[in-house]
Specification:
The protein is α/β, with parallel strands linked by helices and about 350 residues long. The chain folds into 2 domains: about 260 residues, Alpha-Beta Complex (Spore Coat Polysaccharide Biosynthesis Protein SpsA, Chain A); about 70 residues. About 35% of the residues lie in helices and about 20% in strands. The strands form 2 sheets. Strands 1, 2, 3, 4, 5, 6, 7, 8, 10, 12 and 13 form an 11-stranded mixed sheet that branches. Strands 9-11 form a two-stranded antiparallel sheet. The protein is globular. It starts with 8 loop residues before the first strand and ends in an 18-residue tail after the last helix. The relative contact order is 0.13.
């Protein structure tokens, strides 16, 4: 990996837009952290092993966790480029910050609670280089117990409502073959173009060309957390590009560990889902899907009230306010940390 010496730290807020000149590398790896201290060491070690022999740089965007993450990274991984935000800027904006200073021909977006297998990067890069048109690629994902978890998902769509009826009937066995709008319950054991099935690649691990990511408008940073990958997948499909799940490449994803530190994660999910509906759904489809989401959140709030969980009830009630117009006392959507 390419070291940057004393230019390692970029202090966002003090020197907005400033970045030191760097030599171009083949691969830029962007990782956004927020209370990820328990996993980032393993992630960076796996990246170092997987990137062995590649010309690469690692850019870590730290979203004001207020813990010892940066001290550990500085001590154990001195070649990592660090952007230290003064507040939690959210995941999508953090990725865009890293992409804006990246110099690689290729860009890997990686969650901090992941660990790459040693051959993952080479498999993904070789696959991407063999494609004749621009696309994005992702790897097969398992959790910490070895259980397969979705590496690609179906784009939110009015047809997805059937998924919530079909999934319990399948009792977790999973579909043996891809199905339109049912990728979440497909076993995902083969390489496939997920755009053929109205799908998108999970943001836990995305590889593409850096210039293509920028031409597609990068992540929409109005999504504070969640749905930024679905929104990118929707734009890729609408523009006629492709997204591949490459089953031969794999990684471990300790899913949701950063969100576990944040009681507002359900609020972020609800708000981002609403933003996606308003941005990408037709009015008719939105009028069906949005009330269904409201009823689901309301049922969760009632359950939290019955259990006496005041924190969860507060978060869910705040989420429900996003459905109400501001002139009626609701809360407008906002891409920021309410805490």
């Amino acid at each position: 990996m390419t070291g940057l010496g004393n230019f390692k730290y970029l202090w966002i807020g003090l020197f907005e837009g400033f970045a030191p000149l760097k030599n171009q590398v083949d691969l830029s790896i962007v990782i956004v952290t927020y209370h990820s201290e328990d996993y980032i060491r393993g992630c960076l070690r796996s990246v170092g092993e997987a990137a062995r022999g590649l010309s690469s740089e690692v850019i870590l965007v730290e979203n004001a966790s207020g813990n010892g993450t940066l001290r550990m990274v500085n001590r154990e991984f001195p070649d990592v480029v660090v952007i230290e935000n003064k507040k939690n800027e959210g995941y999508a904006r953090g990725v865009n910050q890293g992409a804006n200073i990246a110099t690689g021909q290729y860009l890997l977006i990686l969650n901090p609670d992941t660990q790459l297998n040693p051959d993952t990067l080479k498999i993904l890069l070789n696959f991407l280089k063999n494609q004749t048109t621009d696309c994005i690629v992702g790897a097969h994902t398992i959790d910490g117990t070895g259980r397969r978890i979705p590496s690609c998902r179906s784009l939110p769509h009015i047809g997805n409502l059937t998924r919530y009826l079909v999934a319990p009937l399948l009792n977790g066995t999973g579909l043996q073959n891809p199905r339109r709008r049912l990728l979440d319950i497909w076993e995902q054991h083969e390489t496939v173009d997920v755009t053929k099935y109205d799908g998108y690649i999970s943001g836990a691990c995305i590889l593409t060309r850096l210039d293509f990511f920028k031409r597609m408008g990068m992540f929409d940073d109005r999504y504070f957390l969640y749905y930024e990958d679905a929104d990118m997948g929707f734009r890729i499909k609408q523009a006629g590009y492709r997204a591949f799940l490459v089953a031969e490449a794999s990684l471990v994803h300790f899913s949701g560990r950063s969100a576990a530190h944040c009681p507002w994660s359900r609020l972020y999910a609800a708000e981002s889902c609403l933003r996606y509906l308003h941005k990408n759904f037709t009015f008719r489809h939105r009028m069906v899907f949005q009330p269904s989401l409201f009823i689901l959140l309301l049922s969760w709030a009632v359950r939290a009230w019955l259990k006496g969980d005041q924190t969860e009830k507060k978060v869910l009630l705040e989420s429900l306010k996003r459905f109400i117009p501001p002139f009626l006392g609701g809360t407008p959507m906002q891409a920021r940390d309410p805490s």
